[in-house]
Design brief:
about 100 residues; mainly alpha; Arc Repressor Mutant, subunit A
Length: about 100
């Protein structure tokens, strides 16, 4: 299998935009508190670290990959799995 010629360095999907809007305080603070609590307590240590770098510090996937010594695809996969876990857990708070 050949190497991918290009790779988008940011997520632009609805889920990514929703998390960013919560963290930017566009929603009430209780939702933000729940999200931060989930990130701190319910993600794996690796997911936590990468999510903190990506959403809170604003690092790109390429920057995170370089810091972690892994590929951009690996960072993207961790972010995707963490995001799915976050949304699964948030359902319990709002249903």
């Amino acid at each position: 299998m050949g190497k991918r010629k290009s790779y988008r360095d940011t997520s632009t999907g609805a889920a990514d935009q929703y998390i960013r809007s919560i963290l930017d305080n566009k929603h009430e603070s209780s939702i933000r508190s729940i999200l931060v609590n989930i990130i701190k307590n319910d993600l794996t240590p690796r997911q936590n670290e990468i999510i903190m770098l990506y959403y809170f510090k604003g690092d790109s996937m390429a920057e995170i990959a370089s810091k972690q010594g892994v590929s951009i695809q690996s960072v993207s996969a961790v972010i995707s799995r963490a995001r799915n876990r976050i949304f699964r857990l948030m359902k319990y708070y709002f249903h």
